[in-house]
Amino acid sequence: MTHIAHPYIQRIGISKDWKSRWFGSRAQYKEYLKADVLIREFLEKKLRRFYISSIEMERDEKLYRIIIKTSRAGMIIGRSGEGAQKLKDEILEFLRKRNLPKPKELKIDIEEIRYPEADAAIVALMVAESLEKRMPFRRVMKMTIDKVAANRDVLGVRIRASGRLGGTEMARREELKRGRVPLQTLRADIDFANEKAYLPYGVIGIKVWIYKGDIFNESKR
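The chain above was modelled as a monomer; its predicted structure follows.
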């Protein structure tokens, strides 16, 4: 019997890195991990309309650094950095309310994604947003896959939508694919993301795989 493995988890240490990077003692580990999970959930919910690609975290004894990768960096930063400062204050207030360890210094870095069409998380959000606007799912999937495939860095893309598509009584699954997506090849650079579109008749699940070529370790070659 086969088991489905997350493409990102399979490639950690090969072509991907951890999204939380820090070391802690046994006493700290539980609190740090809880803080990372809750802050990531808080930011993903709050910044959903800003097309967030990923949220990464780094810690040392004094500094807690949150790296937000997005295609709409200017909208988050705001005029003269007001948006970033407000977000920083909200995170500190969020930690205080939940009695989580407060860092001595909190730094928020906002990085812009230059090619959002080649990022699986942003593509999944684009599909979800279009479905929530009541656009036909087949047209949305076809338009999105054409847009992604037009990027020269993308060698293959696959988009899957599942749920009560079109408002039908019975849930089903639809999938579109362009190019090749070698999920079994660990050196393949596969970007994966899943997202949900919230509609009046239920939730539509969206999965996106984007293949950007193979990554070779030059020292081993």
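The mean pLDDT is 90.
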